[in-house]
Design a protein that fits this description.
The complex is a heterodimer of chains A (481) and B (433). The longest helix of chain A is centred in the C-terminal third of the chain and has 17 residues. Chain A contains twelve helices and 24 strands. With 481 residues, chain A is an alpha/beta fold. Chain A has one domain. Chain B is α/β, with parallel strands linked by helices and 433 residues long. Chain B has two domains: 271 residues, no CATH class; 54 residues, no CATH class. Helix content of chain B is 24%, strand content 38%. Chain B has ten helices and 19 strands. In chain B, the strands form two sheets. A ten-stranded mixed beta sheet of chain B has the order 2-3-4-6-8-10-12-14-16-18. Chain B has a nine-stranded parallel beta sheet with strand order 1-5-7-9-11-13-15-17-19, with helices on one face. Chain B is globular. Chain B starts with a helix and ends with a helix. Classes of the chains: A alpha/beta (481), B alpha/beta (433).
C-alpha cells in the first residue's frame, strides 16, 4: 500500500515535469517544405544519392495526397509550410565516456530520468538516446557488435550498411502507404536501426529515447528493426517532450521485419506533452507502425502505453504472412483534459494457421475523447486463422467519451474471430469498498485503474512497467472529485 | 457529359410532379421541394462512402429503371401469404388498391392506405409523417419522401390495445421490366397504447425490382409495440430499407427481423430512445446464399437517461454471399445509467462467402454499462462429432447445429401467431444451405 500511496502522492501533485527547454544551440533550416529543403536535409546528413532520390520520390507522392479525415478526431488545420523539418545539435559529438558529453545535455537526460551510467550498470539496457533527431550517444555497441547485432542511428546505418537499409527500408511501410508515411519518408531526420542476425538472441533490451527540443520543429523519426531467422529482440521506445504552447507534429514511421522463427517485442511508453488543462498546446502524434511476420512461426508483439500527446493517431499493425505466425497487440491508452486518441491495431492474416490477440484498455477522463479502432482481416488463403480481441473502456467523469470501432473482415470459412468490448465507469461499489477500508477516493481510482490495465502492463519489461504505472496516475491527476 | 443519376431522378420527379402530388395535401407537396434540395445536396452514396462500403448505391441505381406513378394491377397468381389473422393492409409495388377505404374501428384505431389517410385525416397524419425519418442524412430517404404517393398507415390511440396484429404486406412484381418502387409506412402508437405489427416484403415473381422503403414508427409515452419483419425477395431484387423508430418516455419496443432471401438488401435502422426509461430489443437473422448481399447498418441512439437496449443479429452465409453488419450504439452526453448491449454472430459456410462486421460504441456519458461482441466462425466440429457418436448423420448434425444457432433469434419472435411460421421458414431455408 505504501508504495502505491507514494506513487499516487507523487503524481497527483505533479504538473508535466518534463516541460523545460534545453538551451543548446541547434542547427536548423528554414521553415517550409519543398524539393530544395528535402535535398538540403539529405545533404546535411551526408546521404548517398539513392537516399536523396528516395526522399524526393516520397515528397512528390506526398504532394498528390491529402490529409485523411476519417478518424474520430478534431484536428486543427496543420500548415505544413510552417514547420521546420530539420533540427540537429550543431556539433554532432562522438564521445568515448560520459565525461565528454555536453554537461547541459547530460543534465537534460538526468531530468528525464535517464541516468545513462546507472541504467547501463543496473539493467544492462543499451540506450541510443536521440535528441532532436540526431543520435548523440550509443551504448553497449561493442557487446552487441560481438554478436553481430547492429544497433545504431538510421543515419549511420545508411552510411555503414546501405545494402541492408536499401533492402528493408520502406518494405513494410512504403512511401505510398499514407499521407504521413509519405511525409516521413521525405523528411525523416533520424531514427534507430536494428538488425539481429540469424539465430541470435539479443541479450539485452534495446531502448531509444526520443525527445523534441527545439521549438517549431517536427519530429520525424524512422525506425527499422529486422530480426533474421530464429533471432529474438525486445525493443523499448519511450517518449517525453518539453512543454510548448505551439502544437508540434510528430509523424514517425516504425517498420519491423520478422523472419522465420524469429520474435520481436516492441514496447512503447508514449508521454509526449499532452497540452495544458485548457487543451492548449501539445503534440500531434500521427505515427505509422507496422510489422510483417515474413516467415513461418514468426512472432511480433506490440505493447503500448499511451498517456501523452494532444492527439494520438496510430495503429501498430501486424501483417501475418508466414504460416503459423503470431501477432499480439496490448495497449493502454489514457486521455485526460482535452486529449484525443484514435488508436488500435490491424491484424492482417495472410498465412495459414496464423493467430492474433488484441487487448486494448482505454481510459478517458476530463473532457477527452478516446477511440479504439481496429481491423481484423482474414484473407482467402489464411486457413485456420484465429483472432481474439478484447477492448475495454473505462470512463472517469461525465464529460469524456469512449468509442469502439472494430472492423472484422473474413474471407475464409475456417476463420474464427471473436471480438468483445465493454464500456463502463468505475462502479460506486468498488469505490465504496475501498473507502470503507480507509482508502481515499483518488487513491482508490489509481488502484482500480492500475488493476484494470494490469493485463497490459504485465507485458512490459520491468523498468517500463513501473514508469508506466506512474505515468497512468500522473495523467489522471485532478480528474477525480 | 453524362447526366448523373441524381439529375436523372430529379428530372423524373420534376416532369411528373403533378401526377405524384395528385390527391395529396398541398402542404405535403409543398414540402417536397425541400427533399429535392436535400437529395440534390447529398448524392447517392457509392462504395467510397465509409457507411456504404459494402453496398454501392450508385451501382444499384444505375441502369434503366421504370417507375409507374399509378398502381399497377395485382398479379393473379397465388402467393405465399402470411398465415396470420389480423388487420391487413396490402400493398402492391408500394400502392394500396385504389378502392381501399381507411378502416376506423370503434376503439379509435385507424389503419389503411397512407394516401387515403392523408386525404381524410390530414392533420393527424402530417403531425407524425416525416418527423422521424432521416431526410437530411440519407439521400435514399429523401428520394422516398420525394416520390411518396402511397403507403401503409397505422394509428393506435391513447390507452388502446389492439387485439389483432396489423399486417403490412408489401408485395413487388413487375412481370417484365426492371422497376423502381417506393414503399412507405407510418406506425403511430399513442400514450399507453399497444400494437403488434407484422411487416412482410415479398416478391411475387422473378423480375428485377428496386425498392426504396422507409418506415417510421413512433411510440409515445408508456406505449408498447411489437414489430416483426419478414423479407422474402427474389434473387434479382434490390431492397433498400430505412427503419426509423422513435420512442418516448417509458415506452417499449420488441423487434424481430428475418431476412430470409433477397438479391441485395440494405438496411438502415435507427432507434431513437428519446425519453427516459425506454426499452428497446432487437433480434435479427439473415441468410445469404449464391450472390446474395445483406448489409445491415443499425444505430441505437440513447438520447435520454435510464434507457436499455439489446440487439442481437445473427447471420449464416454460404456460396458467394456477402454479409455485412455495422452496428452503432450512441450514448449522448448526460444519458446516464444507460445499459446497452449489441452482438453480431456469423456462420461462414464457404470460402467464397464474405463476412464483415463492425459493431461500434460511441459513448459520451460515464455512468453506463455498454458492451458489444462480434464473432465469425463455423460450426463446432466437436459438437458434430458428439452427435455423430450418438448415431446422428453428419448432415443432420450440421443442420441441428444451425437450427440451434437461428433458434436463439427466432424464439424471440414477439407474435405468438407468427412464431411457428417464422421458424418453419428459417428451417426450410437451412435445409437449402
Amino acid at each position: 500500500m505504501d508504495e502505491n500511496e507514494k506513487i499516487l502522492d507523487d503524481i497527483t501533485r505533479q504538473e508535466y515535469k518534463y516541460g523545460f527547454v534545453t538551451d543548446i544551440e541547434t542547427d536548423t533550416i528554414p521553415k517550409g517544405l519543398n524539393e530544395e529543403i528535402i535535398r538540403m536535409i539529405s545533404a546535411k546528413k551526408g546521404e548517398p544519392a539513392w537516399m536523396t532520390e528516395n526522399r524526393v520520390k516520397a515528397y512528390r507522392q506526398w504532394l498528390t495526397m491529402s490529409m485523411p479525415h476519417w478518424a474520430h478526431l478534431d484536428i486543427p488545420e496543420i500548415d505544413y509550410q510552417d514547420i521546420i523539418y530539420y533540427a540537429a545539435p550543431r556539433t554532432t559529438p562522438k564521445y568515448n565516456s560520459m565525461d565528454e558529453v555536453d554537461p547541459e545535455l547530460k543534465a537534460t537526460f538526468d531530468k528525464l530520468g535517464i541516468p545513462l551510467e546507472e541504467q547501463m550498470a543496473l539493467s544492462g539496457v543499451a540506450v541510443d538516446a536521440v535528441m532532436d533527431s540526431v543520435s548523440v550517444k550509443t551504448t553497449f555497441k561493442e557487446t552487441l557488435a560481438e554478436m553481430g547485432i547492429i544497433f545504431c542511428s538510421m543515419s549511420e546505418a545508411i552510411r555503414d550498411y546501405p545494402d541492408l537499409v536499401r533492402k528493408y527500408l520502406g518494405s513494410v511501410v512504403p512511401y505510398t502507404d499514407n499521407f504521413f508515411a509519405a511525409l516521413n519518408a521525405a523528411v525523416f531526420s533520424d531514427g534507430s536501426f536494428c538488425y539481429v542476425p540469424k539465430g541470435v538472441r539479443c541479450p539485452m533490451e534495446l531502448s531509444t529515447y526520443f525527445r523534441i527540443n527545439a521549438a517549431g520543429t517536427g519530429q520525424f523519426e524512422r525506425t527499422l528493426i529486422v530480426a533474421d531467422e530464429g533471432a529474438y529482440v525486445s525493443y523499448l521506445e519511450g517518449c517525453t517532450a518539453p512543454r510548448r504552447d505551439e502544437n508540434q507534429l510528430h509523424a514517425a514511421v516504425v517498420e519491423i521485419v520478422v523472419m522465420k522463427d524469429a520474435e520481436v517485442k516492441y514496447s512503447t511508453v508514449q508521454n509526449w506533452y499532452p497540452g495544458d488543462k485548457e487543451g492548449k498546446g501539445g503534440i500531434y502524434n500521427f505515427v505509422t507502425k507496422r510489422g510483417i511476420c515474413r516467415g513461418e512461426n514468426a512472432r511480433l508483439s506490440w505493447t503500448q502505453v499511451e498517456t501523452g500527446s494532444a492527439i494520438t493517431w496510430k495503429y501498430p499493425s501486424c501483417i501475418l504472412a508466414g504460416d503459423n505466425s503470431v501477432g499480439e497487440f496490448y495497449s493502454v491508452a489514457l486521455t485526460n483534459n482535452f486529449q484525443q486518441a484514435d488508436t488500435g491495431t490491424k491484424m492482417i492474416h495472410l498465412g495459414r494457421n496464423t493467430r492474433s490477440r488484441i487487448v486494448s484498455k482505454g481510459i478517458s477522463a476530463g473532457q477527452s475523447q478516446n477511440s479504439y479502432r481496429g481491423l481484423v482481416k482474414v484473407s482467402k488463403k489464411a486457413v485456420g486463422a484465429r483472432n481474439y480481441s478484447q477492448c475495454d473502456s473505462l470512463l472517469i467523469g461525465d464529460k469524456c467519451g469512449a468509442h469502439t470501432f472494430p472492423y472484422v473482415e473474413s474471407d475464409n470459412r475456417s476463420a474464427v474471430i471473436e471480438h468483445e468490448a465493454t464500456t463502463s465507469k468505475i462502479s460506486d461499489d468498488q469505490l465504496m469498498y475501498c473507502n470503507q477500508r480507509g482508502i481515499a477516493t483518488e487513491e482508490a481510482v489509481g488502484l482500480i485503474v492500475n488493476g484494470y490495465a494490469r493485463e497490459v502492463l504485465n507485458k512490459l519489461p520491468m523498468e517500463f512497467a513501473i514508469e508506466a504505472q506512474k505515468l497512468l496516475a500522473i495523467s489522471l491527476e485532478g480528474s477525480v472529485g | 457529359m453524362n447526366r448523373s443519376l441524381e439529375q436523372g431522378l430529379s428530372e423524373l420527379y420534376l416532369s411528373n410532379l403533378d401526377m405524384i402530388g395528385e390527391g395529396l395535401p398541398g402542404r405535403l407537396n409543398a414540402a417536397r421541394s425541400s427533399f429535392l434540395e436535400s437529395f440534390n445536396l447529398s448524392p447517392l452514396p457509392s462504395a467510397r462512402d465509409e457507411r456504404y462500403r459494402h453496398c454501392d448505391l450508385q451501382k444499384l441505381f444505375a441502369g434503366e429503371w421504370e417507375h409507374y406513378f399509378t398502381p399497377s394491377p395485382e398479379p393473379g397468381q397465388a402467393r405465399n401469404r402470411l398465415p396470420i389473422e389480423g388487420y391487413w393492409i396490402e400493398l402492391y409495388n408500394g400502392f394500396c388498391p385504389t378502392d381501399d377505404a381507411l378502416v376506423v374501428l370503434d376503439n379509435g384505431i385507424i389503419y389503411g392506405s397512407l394516401r387515403v389517410a392523408m386525404r381524410e385525416r390530414e392533420d393527424l397524419v402530417l403531425k407524425y409523417y416525416n418527423t422521424v425519418a432521416d431526410n437530411d442524412g440519407e439521400s435514399v430517404v429523401a428520394l422516398n419522401s420525394l416520390f411518396m404517393q402511397d403507403g401503409a398507415f397505422v394509428y393506435v390511440p391513447e390507452g388502446v390495445s389492439a387485439s389483432l396484429p396489423f399486417v403490412l404486406s408489401f408485395e413487388y412484381g413487375t412481370n417484365d421490366a426492371a422497376q423502381m418502387c417506393f414503399a412507405r409506412s407510418l406506425v403511430v402508437v399513442e400514450r399507453g397504447a399497444h400494437a403488434d405489427v407484422v411487416v412482410s416484403h415479398q416478391s411475387t415473381d422473378n423480375s428485377r425490382v428496386l425498392v426504396d422503403c422507409v418506415r417510421e414508427s413512433i411510440v409515445a409515452d408508456g406505449g408498447n409495440v411489437n414489430l416483426s419483419e419478414i423479407v422474402r425477395m427474389n434473387g434479382s431484387s434490390t431492397l433498400i430499407t430505412g427503419h426509423y423508430l422513435h420512442q418516448k418516455e417509458s415506452s417499449r419496443a420488441d423487434m424481430l427481423s428475418v431476412w430470409l432471401r433477397g438479391g441485395t438488401t440494405r438496411v438502415n435502422a435507427r432507434h431513437d430512445l428519446a425519453g427516459r426509461g425506454c426499452e428497446s430489443n432487437f433480434y435479427g437473422l439473415y441468410f445469404g446464399t449464391g450472390n446474395e448481399r445483406t448489409d445491415i447498418c443499425m444505430t441505437v441512439n440513447h438520447l435520454q437517461p435510464d434507457c436499455t437496449s439489446y440487439e442481437s443479429v445473427k447471420g449464416i452465409v454460404s456460396g458467394e454471399a456477402v454479409g455485412a453488419f455495422t452496428g452503432r450504439v450512441y450514448v449522448a452526453p448526460d444519458a446516464q445509467r444507460t445499459s446497452a448491449f449489441q452482438q453480431n454472430r456469423n456462420l461462414q459456410m464457404s470460402d467464397t462467402a464474405k463476412v464483415y462486421t463492425e459493431p461500434q460504441l460511441e459513448i459520451y456519458a460515464d455512468d453506463v454499462k455498454c458492451s458489444h461482441g462480434a464473432t465469425v466462425g463455423q460450426m463446432d466440429p466437436e459438437a458434430i462429432y458428439y452427435m455423430r457418436q450418438r448415431g446422428i448423420g453428419e448432415e443432420e448434425a450440421r443442420r441441428l447445429q444451425m437450427f440451434g444457432f437461428v433458434n436463439d433469434i427466432v424464439s424471440h419472435c414477439p407474435h405468438d401467431g407468427a412464431c411457428d411460421f417464422v421458424r418453419e421458414l428459417a428451417e426450410a431455408r437451412i435445409n437449402e444451405l
